[in-house]
């Protein structure tokens, strides 16, 4: 598998995660008959934020994977970042879905995502200047 294929694989997996999270929002909207906003429905509010948070953080991380692949970064690096990205976003989604408060999954998922941003940023800087 090439680096570009690996980046495409993890992009696909994260896009499927976004579709799943969007489905959860749509089904909760339909069940509660709330078309816009959350109408003080806590379950809908959490589903909207889980999806929104993923939609806010995934594009940068996925762009980083793509650029690293295009800069001929090692395939193992792309795989490691990709695995941890899907793990981190999954943990965050699970943790925030379970409770509006601080949960281990939410904290771990956010920390993993931030760490991926730092590693990708450093790697992009390195591979851009080598």
Terminal CA distance reads 23 Å
Helix content: over 70%
pLDDT averaged over residues: 94
Cα Rg: 16 Å
Largest sheet: none
Q: What does this molecule look like?
A:
The chain is mostly helical and about 130 residues long. The chain has a domain at about 5-15 and about 55-130. Helix content is about 85%, strand content about 0%. It contains 4 helices and no strands. Helix 1 (about 5-30) packs antiparallel against helix 2. The radius of gyration is 16 Å and the shape is elongated. It starts with a helix and ends with a helix.
Short summary:
With 130 residues, the chain is mainly alpha-helical.
Q: What's the arrangement of secondary structure elements?
A:
Elements: H1 3-32, H2 42-70, H3 75-98, H4 104-129
Helix pairs in contact: 1-2, 1-3, 2-3, 2-4, 3-4
